[in-house]
Amino acid sequence: MTDYRLRTLAAGFFAVALAGSVLTGCKRGANNNTFDNGVDSLTWCTVSFEDSVSVLDASAYQQMAADFPIDVDTAVMDAGTRAAIEWVANTLQNCSYPDYDGSGREDKLMPVPAMDEAELETFVARCGKIGLDSMKADMREMAEDGFGGSYLNNIKIELTEQTPSYLTLTFGHEVYTGGAHGGWITNGATFNRATGEQMGWNLFDMSKEQELRAMLIRGVKSYFNDFSEEKIETDEQLYELLILYDDPETPENEITIGLPFPQAEPYVTRDGISFVYQQYEIAAYACGLPSFIVPVEEVKDLLSEKGKELLGISK
Questions:
Q1: What is the CATH T-level fold of the domain 204-311, as seen in this structure?
Q2: Domain ranges for the chain
Q3: Which of 33, 116, 184, 310 gives 159 a disulfide partner, CB atoms 3.0 to 4.6 angstroms apart?
Protein backbone atom coordinates (compact mmCIF):
# COMPACT_ATOMS: atom_id res chain seq x y z
CA MET A 1 0.00 0.00 0.00
CA THR A 2 1.28 3.44 -0.87
CA ASP A 3 2.32 5.48 2.13
CA TYR A 4 1.62 9.18 1.86
CA ARG A 5 1.70 11.90 4.47
CA LEU A 6 -0.35 14.99 4.96
CA ARG A 7 1.03 17.86 2.92
CA THR A 8 0.47 21.09 4.80
CA LEU A 9 0.17 24.10 2.52
CA ALA A 10 -1.16 26.52 5.13
CA ALA A 11 0.78 27.72 8.13
CA GLY A 12 -1.64 26.03 10.51
CA PHE A 13 -5.03 27.11 11.72
CA PHE A 14 -5.14 29.57 14.62
CA ALA A 15 -1.39 30.01 14.57
CA VAL A 16 -1.96 33.67 15.39
CA ALA A 17 -3.43 34.77 18.70
CA LEU A 18 -6.83 36.42 18.47
CA ALA A 19 -5.99 39.98 19.35
CA GLY A 20 -8.51 42.77 19.40
CA SER A 21 -6.49 45.26 17.43
CA VAL A 22 -6.62 46.48 13.84
CA LEU A 23 -3.55 46.46 11.64
CA THR A 24 -3.42 48.05 8.21
CA GLY A 25 -0.48 49.20 6.20
CA CYS A 26 1.38 49.31 2.94
CA LYS A 27 4.74 47.61 3.26
CA ARG A 28 7.47 48.73 0.90
CA GLY A 29 11.23 48.41 0.75
CA ALA A 30 13.63 45.77 -0.47
CA ASN A 31 10.82 43.24 -0.69
CA ASN A 32 8.38 45.37 -2.63
CA ASN A 33 7.67 42.94 -5.47
CA THR A 34 9.69 44.61 -8.18
CA PHE A 35 11.64 42.25 -10.41
CA ASP A 36 15.17 42.57 -11.72
CA ASN A 37 14.32 41.52 -15.25
CA GLY A 38 15.21 44.60 -17.23
CA VAL A 39 11.59 45.79 -17.31
CA ASP A 40 10.44 49.23 -16.33
CA SER A 41 8.11 47.53 -13.85
CA LEU A 42 5.66 49.13 -11.49
CA THR A 43 6.45 48.95 -7.81
CA TRP A 44 3.84 46.93 -5.95
CA CYS A 45 3.35 46.99 -2.20
CA THR A 46 1.52 44.74 0.23
CA VAL A 47 -1.57 46.25 1.85
CA SER A 48 -2.64 44.31 4.93
CA PHE A 49 -5.38 44.16 7.54
CA GLU A 50 -5.99 42.01 10.60
CA ASP A 51 -8.51 42.14 13.39
CA SER A 52 -10.75 39.90 15.48
CA VAL A 53 -14.15 39.91 17.12
CA SER A 54 -15.64 37.84 19.95
CA VAL A 55 -19.15 36.60 20.67
CA LEU A 56 -19.54 34.96 24.08
CA ASP A 57 -16.94 32.16 24.06
CA ALA A 58 -16.32 32.25 20.30
CA SER A 59 -13.84 34.35 18.34
CA ALA A 60 -13.30 35.19 14.70
CA TYR A 61 -9.99 36.24 13.22
CA GLN A 62 -9.62 37.99 9.86
CA GLN A 63 -6.28 38.52 8.13
CA MET A 64 -5.86 39.92 4.63
CA ALA A 65 -2.82 40.86 2.58
CA ALA A 66 -2.92 41.91 -1.05
CA ASP A 67 -0.41 43.39 -3.47
CA PHE A 68 -1.22 46.55 -5.41
CA PRO A 69 0.93 48.91 -7.50
CA ILE A 70 1.37 52.13 -5.57
CA ASP A 71 1.23 55.82 -6.43
CA VAL A 72 0.44 55.37 -10.12
CA ASP A 73 -2.39 56.55 -12.34
CA THR A 74 -4.41 53.58 -13.63
CA ALA A 75 -5.15 55.57 -16.79
CA VAL A 76 -1.54 55.21 -17.94
CA MET A 77 -1.14 51.55 -16.97
CA ASP A 78 -0.97 48.76 -19.50
CA ALA A 79 -4.18 46.80 -19.99
CA GLY A 80 -2.89 43.70 -18.19
CA THR A 81 -2.00 45.56 -15.02
CA ARG A 82 -5.39 47.29 -14.97
CA ALA A 83 -7.10 43.90 -15.36
CA ALA A 84 -4.93 42.42 -12.61
CA ILE A 85 -5.82 45.24 -10.19
CA GLU A 86 -9.52 44.66 -10.81
CA TRP A 87 -9.03 40.92 -10.26
CA VAL A 88 -7.19 41.53 -6.96
CA ALA A 89 -9.83 43.97 -5.69
CA ASN A 90 -12.79 41.76 -6.58
CA THR A 91 -11.15 38.58 -5.30
CA LEU A 92 -10.30 40.26 -2.02
CA GLN A 93 -13.79 41.47 -1.29
CA ASN A 94 -15.53 38.35 -2.61
CA CYS A 95 -13.45 36.28 -0.18
CA SER A 96 -13.55 38.65 2.77
CA TYR A 97 -15.54 35.89 4.48
CA PRO A 98 -15.67 32.17 3.58
CA ASP A 99 -17.87 32.56 0.50
CA TYR A 100 -15.69 30.79 -2.02
CA ASP A 101 -17.82 31.85 -4.98
CA GLY A 102 -18.74 35.31 -3.70
CA SER A 103 -22.45 34.47 -3.88
CA GLY A 104 -24.70 37.02 -2.25
CA ARG A 105 -22.04 39.75 -2.31
CA GLU A 106 -22.73 41.31 -5.67
CA ASP A 107 -24.60 44.21 -4.08
CA LYS A 108 -21.71 44.88 -1.69
CA LEU A 109 -18.88 45.14 -4.22
CA MET A 110 -16.98 48.39 -3.87
CA PRO A 111 -15.39 50.28 -6.76
CA VAL A 112 -11.76 49.44 -7.46
CA PRO A 113 -9.77 52.00 -5.43
CA ALA A 114 -7.23 54.47 -6.74
CA MET A 115 -3.64 53.33 -6.36
CA ASP A 116 -3.10 55.73 -3.49
CA GLU A 117 -1.72 54.34 -0.23
CA ALA A 118 -4.45 55.80 1.97
CA GLU A 119 -7.27 54.69 -0.34
CA LEU A 120 -5.82 51.18 -0.64
CA GLU A 121 -5.58 50.82 3.12
CA THR A 122 -9.18 52.02 3.51
CA PHE A 123 -10.37 49.60 0.83
CA VAL A 124 -8.66 46.56 2.36
CA ALA A 125 -9.83 47.49 5.86
CA ARG A 126 -13.42 47.78 4.64
CA CYS A 127 -13.18 44.34 3.03
CA GLY A 128 -11.88 42.92 6.28
CA LYS A 129 -14.56 44.54 8.41
CA ILE A 130 -17.33 43.30 6.13
CA GLY A 131 -16.01 39.79 6.70
CA LEU A 132 -15.78 40.26 10.44
CA ASP A 133 -19.35 41.53 10.60
CA SER A 134 -20.54 38.46 8.67
CA MET A 135 -18.62 36.08 10.93
CA LYS A 136 -19.93 37.86 14.03
CA ALA A 137 -23.52 37.47 12.83
CA ASP A 138 -22.95 33.76 12.15
CA MET A 139 -21.36 33.19 15.54
CA ARG A 140 -24.24 34.95 17.29
CA GLU A 141 -26.74 32.78 15.44
CA MET A 142 -24.77 29.66 16.36
CA ALA A 143 -24.64 30.75 20.02
CA GLU A 144 -28.40 31.19 20.08
CA ASP A 145 -28.71 27.58 18.89
CA GLY A 146 -26.39 26.39 21.64
CA PHE A 147 -23.28 25.97 19.55
CA GLY A 148 -19.91 27.67 19.92
CA GLY A 149 -16.65 27.76 18.05
CA SER A 150 -14.10 30.01 16.47
CA TYR A 151 -13.60 31.16 12.89
CA LEU A 152 -10.50 31.96 10.90
CA ASN A 153 -10.29 33.61 7.48
CA ASN A 154 -6.85 34.31 6.00
CA ILE A 155 -6.36 35.68 2.49
CA LYS A 156 -3.12 36.42 0.66
CA ILE A 157 -2.80 37.74 -2.90
CA GLU A 158 0.75 38.21 -4.10
CA LEU A 159 2.41 39.42 -7.29
CA THR A 160 4.81 36.66 -8.25
CA GLU A 161 5.95 37.62 -11.75
CA GLN A 162 6.09 40.76 -13.88
CA THR A 163 7.59 40.64 -17.37
CA PRO A 164 7.20 42.78 -20.49
CA SER A 165 4.47 40.45 -21.81
CA TYR A 166 2.60 39.23 -18.72
CA LEU A 167 2.21 39.39 -14.98
CA THR A 168 1.07 36.69 -12.57
CA LEU A 169 -0.55 36.85 -9.15
CA THR A 170 -1.12 33.97 -6.75
CA PHE A 171 -3.98 33.59 -4.31
CA GLY A 172 -4.22 31.63 -1.05
CA HIS A 173 -7.33 31.36 1.12
CA GLU A 174 -7.26 29.58 4.48
CA VAL A 175 -10.58 29.06 6.28
CA TYR A 176 -11.74 27.45 9.50
CA THR A 177 -15.41 27.50 10.47
CA GLY A 178 -15.51 24.53 12.82
CA GLY A 179 -15.08 20.79 12.50
CA ALA A 180 -12.04 18.56 12.43
CA HIS A 181 -10.00 20.81 10.19
CA GLY A 182 -10.14 23.89 8.04
CA GLY A 183 -9.82 24.32 4.32
CA TRP A 184 -7.35 25.82 1.88
CA ILE A 185 -7.76 27.13 -1.65
CA THR A 186 -4.89 28.25 -3.85
CA ASN A 187 -4.67 29.33 -7.47
CA GLY A 188 -3.11 31.96 -9.70
CA ALA A 189 -3.96 34.36 -12.49
CA THR A 190 -1.80 35.44 -15.43
CA PHE A 191 -2.65 38.54 -17.46
CA ASN A 192 -1.49 39.54 -20.92
CA ARG A 193 -0.07 43.03 -20.42
CA ALA A 194 -0.81 44.16 -23.97
CA THR A 195 -4.44 43.04 -24.18
CA GLY A 196 -5.56 42.64 -20.56
CA GLU A 197 -6.77 39.10 -21.27
CA GLN A 198 -6.53 36.61 -18.42
CA MET A 199 -4.52 33.64 -19.61
CA GLY A 200 -5.32 30.12 -18.45
CA TRP A 201 -6.46 27.18 -20.53
CA ASN A 202 -6.33 29.51 -23.52
CA LEU A 203 -2.55 29.10 -23.28
CA PHE A 204 -3.08 25.68 -24.82
CA ASP A 205 -4.38 24.22 -28.04
CA MET A 206 -7.42 22.48 -26.59
CA SER A 207 -7.79 20.31 -29.66
CA LYS A 208 -4.83 18.36 -28.23
CA GLU A 209 -6.89 17.11 -25.30
CA GLN A 210 -5.34 13.65 -25.24
CA GLU A 211 -1.80 15.02 -25.02
CA LEU A 212 -2.83 17.55 -22.38
CA ARG A 213 -4.47 14.88 -20.26
CA ALA A 214 -1.32 12.73 -20.49
CA MET A 215 0.69 15.75 -19.31
CA LEU A 216 -1.63 16.16 -16.30
CA ILE A 217 -1.28 12.48 -15.41
CA ARG A 218 2.52 12.77 -15.44
CA GLY A 219 2.31 15.88 -13.28
CA VAL A 220 0.03 14.33 -10.65
CA LYS A 221 2.27 11.26 -10.54
CA SER A 222 5.25 13.52 -9.86
CA TYR A 223 3.33 15.21 -7.02
CA PHE A 224 2.66 11.93 -5.23
CA ASN A 225 6.12 10.56 -5.98
CA ASP A 226 7.66 13.51 -4.15
CA PHE A 227 6.56 12.04 -0.84
CA SER A 228 5.50 8.46 -1.52
CA GLU A 229 7.63 5.50 -0.45
CA GLU A 230 6.19 3.41 -3.27
CA LYS A 231 6.87 5.06 -6.61
CA ILE A 232 3.83 5.48 -8.84
CA GLU A 233 4.60 4.40 -12.37
CA THR A 234 1.32 3.24 -13.92
CA ASP A 235 -1.98 5.03 -14.35
CA GLU A 236 -3.66 2.25 -12.37
CA GLN A 237 -1.43 2.93 -9.35
CA LEU A 238 -2.30 6.62 -9.55
CA TYR A 239 -6.05 6.06 -9.82
CA GLU A 240 -5.96 3.92 -6.68
CA LEU A 241 -5.02 7.09 -4.77
CA LEU A 242 -7.61 9.33 -6.37
CA ILE A 243 -11.32 9.89 -5.90
CA LEU A 244 -12.75 10.48 -9.34
CA TYR A 245 -16.51 10.74 -9.00
CA ASP A 246 -18.97 13.23 -10.43
CA ASP A 247 -20.74 12.99 -7.08
CA PRO A 248 -19.16 11.25 -4.05
CA GLU A 249 -22.67 10.32 -2.85
CA THR A 250 -23.30 8.31 -6.00
CA PRO A 251 -20.23 6.13 -6.67
CA GLU A 252 -21.89 4.75 -9.77
CA ASN A 253 -21.11 8.11 -11.37
CA GLU A 254 -17.39 7.48 -11.41
CA ILE A 255 -15.63 9.58 -14.02
CA THR A 256 -14.68 7.35 -16.92
CA ILE A 257 -12.57 9.79 -18.93
CA GLY A 258 -9.64 9.44 -16.55
CA LEU A 259 -8.02 12.34 -14.78
CA PRO A 260 -10.11 15.51 -15.27
CA PHE A 261 -8.68 18.93 -16.01
CA PRO A 262 -8.19 21.07 -12.87
CA GLN A 263 -11.07 23.43 -12.15
CA ALA A 264 -8.58 26.25 -11.50
CA GLU A 265 -6.98 27.88 -14.52
CA PRO A 266 -3.26 27.17 -15.04
CA TYR A 267 -0.94 30.15 -14.62
CA VAL A 268 2.58 31.10 -15.67
CA THR A 269 5.51 31.15 -13.25
CA ARG A 270 9.25 31.66 -13.77
CA ASP A 271 9.73 27.91 -13.75
CA GLY A 272 6.94 27.03 -16.16
CA ILE A 273 3.17 26.64 -16.18
CA SER A 274 1.58 25.78 -12.84
CA PHE A 275 -1.38 23.43 -12.34
CA VAL A 276 -3.24 22.82 -9.08
CA TYR A 277 -6.15 20.66 -7.98
CA GLN A 278 -8.04 21.91 -4.94
CA GLN A 279 -8.82 19.94 -1.78
CA TYR A 280 -11.15 17.02 -2.48
CA GLU A 281 -11.17 17.78 -6.21
CA ILE A 282 -9.48 14.51 -7.12
CA ALA A 283 -8.11 13.17 -3.82
CA ALA A 284 -8.69 12.91 -0.09
CA TYR A 285 -7.93 15.77 2.31
CA ALA A 286 -4.77 14.04 3.54
CA CYS A 287 -3.32 14.22 0.03
CA GLY A 288 -3.23 18.01 0.13
CA LEU A 289 -3.59 19.96 -3.09
CA PRO A 290 -2.06 17.96 -5.95
CA SER A 291 -0.01 20.52 -7.85
CA PHE A 292 2.97 20.69 -10.17
CA ILE A 293 4.81 22.95 -12.61
CA VAL A 294 5.62 21.93 -16.18
CA PRO A 295 8.55 23.72 -17.87
CA VAL A 296 7.47 25.68 -20.94
CA GLU A 297 9.99 23.80 -23.09
CA GLU A 298 8.15 20.55 -22.33
CA VAL A 299 4.74 21.85 -23.44
CA LYS A 300 5.63 24.24 -26.24
CA ASP A 301 4.09 21.89 -28.83
CA LEU A 302 0.80 21.99 -26.91
CA LEU A 303 0.54 25.76 -26.73
CA SER A 304 -2.01 27.81 -28.64
CA GLU A 305 -0.96 30.72 -30.83
CA LYS A 306 -1.86 33.05 -27.95
CA GLY A 307 0.25 30.98 -25.59
CA LYS A 308 3.25 30.94 -27.90
CA GLU A 309 3.06 34.69 -28.42
CA LEU A 310 2.78 35.39 -24.70
CA LEU A 311 5.73 33.16 -23.83
CA GLY A 312 7.91 34.16 -26.75
CA ILE A 313 7.89 30.77 -28.46
CA SER A 314 8.85 31.03 -32.11
CA LYS A 315 6.49 29.33 -34.51
A1: Actin; Chain A, domain 4 (3.90.640)
A2: 23-199, 204-311
A3: 33
